[in-house]
Amino acid sequence: MKKAIVCPGIGTGTARLAIALILALSATTALSQSSSAQDKSILSGIVVGVETDNNDRLTRFAVSDSTGTVTTFELSTNTEFGLENQSGDRWVSSQGEEPAESARRLRDHRERFAPITVSSQNGIATSVVEREEGKLETNLGYLFAVFAITWALFFAYVLYMGRKQRVLQHEIAKLKSSIANADRT
Amino acid sequence: MMGSFAVIWEIGRKDLLLEIRNKDVVVAIAGFALLVLVIFTFAIDLNQSNAKLVGPGVLWAGIAFAGVTGLNRAFALEVEGNTLEALMLAPMSRDLIYLGKALGNFLFIAVAQIIVIPVFAVLFNLVVFRWEMLVISLLTTIGFSAVGTLFAAMSVRVRAREVMLPLLFLPVVIPLLMAAVESTSHIVNGRSWSDISQWLQLAVAFDVTFVVVFAFIFQHILED
Amino acid sequence: MINKVLNRLDPLLILSAALMGVALYLIFIWVPTETNQGAVQRILYFHVPVAWGSMMGILVVSGSSFMYLWKKNEKWDRLAVASAEVGVVFGGIMLLSGMIWARPVWAVWWTGEAKLTTALILFFIYVAYLMFRAYFPPGAHRQRLAAIIGVTGAIDTPIIYFATNLWSQAHPPLVTGPAADADSTLGSDLGIVLLASTIAFTFLFIFLVQNRYKIRKSEDDLVELKRASSTSVMTGAN
Questions:
Q1: Is it true that domain A34-137 has CATH number 2.40.50?
Q2: What's the pTM?
Q3: Which of residues 26-65 of C touch A (CB under 8 A)?
């Protein structure tokens, strides 16, 4: 709010722009109840609104969570995206690099009702990603995969060593007996 | 002191004279690297912006792979002629033999680069003829030949020499490759010394470390 | 009968199995689920100790390679090859478990982060070390050349790390995910479980290296015996 007081002194053009910006910001913070409550937050839901400027660049989007609460997110150039299309190809980029593609992807998600997970700070999205199957809290599949692979590999390695050792010992025993025989004769 | 430099130069010159006669190694390196460049111009739909992005990577990946081919060729010649054993019998310090062989390989890769880099500049339509490029090319070539000479000499008696050398050589030179690619991409984007100074320092550190350590260690790779 | 089985079992194996049991209990039952990352966070209790194991492997390989070049004692070579092989197994598991963890948390399987790239390059160097040993005719010459590769890897490590650090500054790793930058909610519990798991995996590492060492020893014994038998056959013929 400090900025708004200082700005009128600078010049009419910049001042108006600054006031408009601050008004827009405060409007969105008022809109997004959950994200303004705390600094950082994570929200999963379905895209319900996508707003672009004249050049088709993404400016704002809104997400509805499971309770039906709609939250609007602003974007910064650092906002990162990791979204998949219908065939599962992942597109990873940031708002600074491809602002038009991000709008296209979010519209695609809105049409498919594909859920996304948004991490945000003060109402500005920091990352927008595909919501993982069955949510983060329960994605045991990954844990299972690691556990299974770890032990399968260790087990295979121990088996391999055991077999090698047995073969070697067998050969040593054979040679020893043949030497003993040769000595006797 | 003058004597050791003369020995190194003599060994390097011997390889160079042999090379001038049959042109085996330089043709192998330059030909391979040029093919990599040409194939990439087909594989990627080149335009002004992505040439700057992928060009440096393609150039140095090409030179690294081609360098491996050339080193393999250089030491295959040694094996065919049994010249390595003869050289080992010579009454001189082992580190001088190493430095001499490395000098020869350095010259081969450098000559190949003199052919490859202009073609790269034309195919990818990039400006590379600058002092920065000369320095980073020299540093990279020193590192490649320092590491490559030792590993090639080690791989001579391995069953699958053609496979073994790249497997040993490439992971070890990755830091140098990163330095070359990053510096080159700064250079084609028109930046200057201050932007690539850290990479140059890294390349110098790499070169000094491996030249010194490998010259010292080279005596161990010979058979008793 | 039971005594016979127990006698054949290595005390190290029993110890590492018992510690592994404790670690598994702590990982899956005792420690609460981390709220930001969810169940996948438990992967770290495997990933970090396994990464530690592969690091130990590299340290032991380079250390004993250096000792071999210096002292020319067969023992150091056996230790080097044993820890290289076990280190590569640990390294492979480290890379796989890291990727599986990164997919849900960072939203990508792989990213150009400095530590990841360094780990991958070192993994390749020590795979090359093992392949070289497999391809080269056995003997003191092979041992010496392998030791040179072992030492080279160690010399290269700081340079690789410095380079990948510089490189990932130029290409900021794209880490996007619901919990990419969230702090852990576990605090000291995490440390306890990690410590227990690391101790357990350290003993597993020692056990595996010890066994691989024995195999290498048996191979040498076999060569020795073959030589002895061929001479004894020759003297028998005389």
A1: yes
A2: 0.76
A3: 33, 36-40, 42-43, 46-47, 50
